[in-house]
Known about the structure:
Blueprint: H1 5-23, H2 28-35, H3 39-56, H4 66-83
Helix pairs in contact: 1-2, 1-3, 2-3, 3-4
Amino acid sequence: MPKTKSSDLIRSQRRTRVMQLYLKSWPQPKIAEELGVNQSTVSRDICAIHDEWKRSRIHDMDGCEPLYAAFLREISLVCSVKRVGVAG
């Protein structure tokens, strides 16, 4: 099924909400339940946020809010582990 602007907007809005809840230390299953999606979708969204951050080359954490910088560091670790197949 081809991607549409509408589905891109929905995905973008969901990822924003995922990030907000994750920053509040919500576990992935609770985020999934809140948003009505699978936990695997939340996990993929977190890694997509990380990839977007890497592509934008925002590596200077000095300008970031402390919670956001902590979030980026954490998802760097989580996504790195998942990509090598260590985490489930």
